[in-house]
From TrEMBL:
Protein name per Swiss-Prot or TrEMBL: Histo-blood group A transferase
Binding-site residues for Mn(2+), renumbered to this chain: 66, 68
Pfam families, per the entry: Glyco_transf_6
Textual note on the cofactor: Binds 1 Mn(2+) ion per subunit.
Active-site residues (renumbered): 158
Cofactor(s) of this protein: Mn(2+)
Length: 189
């Protein structure tokens, strides 16, 4: 069974999609924000809240994906694990010195220059509902502390995700092939 949850500030704009047997779609209305950065950062809060309100009683695993992802091949149960993160294709094979972690100690997302093993992309992560709820709650709380202190992490929720996954190692690290973006890498399409 697969249940797709689509978060949107425009529920009426979501088209009807024919789904296969055992699949269903729920459109979840959320608040609109003016800045894309706020949309990005608030998704941790939204996911955490919906974990509590719905997901814990409806599903076993959550896969959180950016809405503009295009799946070009089968993604199956091989990704289902208590907690997974996806390597950022722009930093694959790079040393930690090249990672764009949050380097300002004032931020809750701060990672010192001598720490870090991977750089994760914020657009594809997941795991058991309980683990995703822990991750999203922790990231949201850290972002609220930053906001109260007048600081915004360099890569917003992605910076906080990287800090969380550094301190709480994922049980599976997905290859950057799961979120390959030739345009992001400056390659011809």
């Amino acid at each position: 069974r697969v249940h797709y949850y689509v978060f949107t500030d425009q529920p009426a704009a979501v088209p009807r999609v024919a789904l296969g047997t055992g699949r269903q779609l729920s459109v979840l209305g959320v608040r609109a924000y003016k800045r894309w950065q706020d949309v990005s950062m608030r998704r941790m809060e939204m996911i955490s809240d919906f974990c509590e309100r719905r997901f814990l009683s409806e599903v076993d695993y959550l896969v959180c994906a950016d809405v503009d992802m295009e799946f070009r091949d089968h993604v199956g149960v091989e990704i289902l694990t208590p907690l997974f993160g996806t390597l950022h294709p722009a930093f694959y094979g790079s040393s930690r010195e090249a990672f764009t972690y949050e380097r300002r100690p004032q931020s809750q997302a701060y990672i010192p220059k001598d720490e870090g093993d991977f750089y994760y992309l914020g657009g594809f992560f997941g795991g058991s509902v309980q683990e995703v709820q822990r991750l999203t709650r922790a990231c949201h709380q850290a972002m609220m502390v930053d906001q109260a202190n007048g600081i915004e992490a360099v890569w917003h929720d992605e910076s906080h995700l990287n800090k969380y996954l550094l301190r709480h190692k994922p049980t599976k690290v997905l290859s950057p092939e799961y979120l390959w973006d030739q345009q992001l890498l400056g390659w011809p399409a």
